Amino acid sequence: MKMRSFLAAHLLFILLFSANFGNVYAQSSRFRSLKYGNDKGDSLNYRLLVPDADTMRRYPLVIFLHGSGERGNDNEAQLKWGVMNFATDQNMMLHPAIVIAPQCPEKLGWSNFSRGATPADTRLLASPSKPMELLIELIHQIIKTMPVDSNRIYITGLSMGGFGTYDAIERYPDLFAAAVPVCGGGDPSKVSSIKHIPIWIFQGSEDPAVSPSYALVMLQALTKEGIHPGFTLYPEVGHFAWLGAYIDPLMMEWLFRQHK
């Protein structure tokens, strides 16, 4: 009887794993593998999710920035965390959107901040990083060539991408309609330039990689400016706060309600 129970449990595990693998594969196959190149010879790999063609409407555009562990040139690793939740059957039915998931090359980053002695000393440097510069060029190209609702451009990212999210909205405050930084930080002295952008911050309270102080500094600066950002601090959670953030249906509903 014990052997039979073990075999039944083992078979159930295999069936569940196979079903989940099939769902992940189906979702990843929805992202086209592309490369953006400019006239200077610079390039950026990215994945593109496009809803079913419908020439009668325009779609929100979501920019998803991965973390440092997904850097490279395979144009695949950036799909590992979070972004797949935008490609589920349910989300594509409720919130169809064009999604760009770029891949940052090795040894580079999305943001260009100077880091001081404390998170409060973080400062935005004058020039964007090369990947951020290329991403902004790509966004403008997508706006011109695809049915994008330019009043509904959203940006989100985790870890290195959370810092990239703050970099993008502080550097290009007129481009985005909402932002969801996950375990990231920005320049608190620049919050007056982004007070018109709805923001929802996510953070793990026991994050050993990105101190929660970065999120708390930005929350305090935004609040002092009279802004009321969303803020979710997961108790007893480390660096993987994005596992909760991107499956939160309230976050998804909130995000896709935002307009410039």
Order of secondary-structure elements? HEEEHEEEHEHEEHEHH
Helix amount: 25-40%
CATH class: Alpha Beta
Distance between the termini: 63 Å
Neighbour order of strands in the largest sheet: 1-2-4-3-7-8
Count of domains: 1
Number of helices: 7
CATH superfamily: Alpha/Beta hydrolase fold, catalytic domain
User: What is the fold-level CATH name, i.e. the topology?
Assistant: Rossmann fold
As a percent range, the share of strand residues is: 15-25%
* Shape field: globular
CATH architecture: 3-Layer(aba) Sandwich
Give average pLDDT, whole number: 90
Q: Specify the biggest β-sheet.
A: 6 strands, mixed
Output the radius of gyration.
Answer: 19 Å
Low-pLDDT segments: 1-26
| Extended strand count | 10
> What class, by secondary structure content?
alpha/beta
Concise structural overview:
The chain is 33% helix and 22% strand.
Could you list some keywords that capture this structure?
single chain; 260 residues; Rossmann fold; two-stranded antiparallel sheet; 7 helices; disordered N terminus
Write the layout of secondary structure elements.
Elements: H1 2-28, E1 31-37, E2 43-49, E3 59-65, H2 89-94, E4 98-103, E5 113-114, E6 123-124, H3 130-145, E7 148-158, H4 160-171, E8 178-182, E9 200-204, H5 212-224, E10 230-234, H6 242-245, H7 249-257
Parallel strand pairs: 3-4, 3-7, 7-8, 9-10
Antiparallel strand pairs: 1-2, 2-4, 5-6
